[in-house]
Specification:
about 350 residues; Quinone Oxidoreductase, Chain A, domain 1; seven-stranded mixed β-sheet; about 25% strand
Length: about 350
């Protein structure tokens, strides 16, 4: 089969396009998915570069977003059949533990992630455990579906579950036109919240305006964004701040969050550590909450929302799988909007 393979960590050109990779075998509890679309996530760049404590089994196929058609089923798979359209939860959990029994399977220490702990979606086929399969309605395209398992699920988990955003609250997000950001903005608007977002270019700002965001700042040119947010909210600040940037934005995120509010962290674009004022955190009753991905039922709910037309992923480019280097380069240089889709 065709696939993108990492033989070592490195720059985008470490991604090698191959046409002679062995199609994965499946167990009795797995299906073989013919991948119609996948997408590129920032975590793919982190994995490609190498991350402390993470060891890949080279040669390695990256990618966490699987959307396609079942081409083969194991003998123990009864709920799905050949020809079914599916999108896949990017986590595989095959053993029950306390987290699984409490409905928090994504937190289990036994979890495995496509494209990290096992071969992923930058390929024509992937073997997927039956417990990670989600039915894909005909009304949702494979391209849109490929935007949901990682970026979309993280956005849903952040806004609807961890953030528990309510009507009338204020939601702030750094970088509102990323793949995660565009879905998070739509979910926040759907909840009835007031949304404030940043964008780095006029083109990105215009997209946010079309989505319905009224207050947009340029995170390169506007220096005191926190101060502006405080002005817009009468000095109170935002109820929920979504920050996947990291140390570069944390100080302003902390300044702008309302007393009793939440800062949600789900990324490390500018580093892994920052300073936190314990005193001001408890004095202002601020919740600092880390998150990643979400549960399979949340992905099912998100798929339903997309099928109903209430949320629409934004796809800026659709590229053949062999152009994965270009896709990584565009994202690394900050030149992409929304999602870049790769087609095997």
């Amino acid at each position: 089969m065709k696939a993108i393979v990492l033989e070592k960590h490195g720059a985008p050109d470490a991604l090698k396009y191959k046409e002679d990779i062995k199609t994965p075998a499946i167990s009795t509890d797995e299906v073989l998915v013919k991948i119609e679309s996948t997408s590129v996530n920032r975590v793919d760049l982190v994995i490609r570069n190498g991350y402390p404590g993470l060891s890949l089994n080279f040669p390695h196929i990256p990618g966490g977003d699987i959307a396609g058609v079942i081409s083969e089923t194991g003998s123990n798979v009864k709920e799905f059949k050949k020809g079914d359209r599916v999108v896949c939860w990017p986590i595989v959990i095959t053993e029950e533990d306390d987290f699984v029994l409490k409905g928090r399977a994504s937190l289990s220490p036994k979890w495995k992630y496509f494209g990290m702990h096992m071969n992923g979606s930058y390929a024509e086929y992937a073997s997927v455990h039956k417990s990670s399969l989600v039915r894909l309605p005909d009304s949702v395209t494979f391209d849109d579906a490929a935007a949901l398992p990682v970026a979309g699920l993280t956005a849903y988990h952040a806004v609807n579950t961890v953030g528990n955003l309510k009507k009338g609250e204020t939601f702030f997000i750094w970088g509102g036109t990323s793949g995660l950001g565009i879905i998070a903005v739509q979910l926040a608007l759907n909840s009835g919240a007031e949304v404030i977002a940043t964008a780095g270019t006029d083109e990105k700002a215009e997209l946010l305006e079309k989505l319905g965001v009224k207050n947009i700042f340029n995170h390169y040119n506007d220096k005191d964004i926190a101060g502006e947010v405080l002005k817009l909210t009468g000095g109170y600040g935002a109820d929920v701040v979504l920050d996947y940037i990291g140390p570069a934005t944390y100080e302003q995120s902390f300044k702008m969050v309302r007393k009793g509010g939440k800062i949600l962290w789900c990324g490390i674009m500018t580093g892994r550590e920052t300073n936190v004022s314990i005193h001001m955190t408890y004095l202002r009753h601020i919740s600092l909450m880390g998150l990643y991905l979400g549960e399979i039922n949340e992905l099912e709910e998100l798929v339903s929302i997309v099928a109903e037309g209430k949320v629409k992923p934004y796809i800026s480019e659709i590229l053949p799988l062999k152009d994965a280097v270009k896709a990584h380069t565009l994202i690394q240089e900050g030149k992409s909007i929304g999602k870049i889709i790769l087609k095997p």
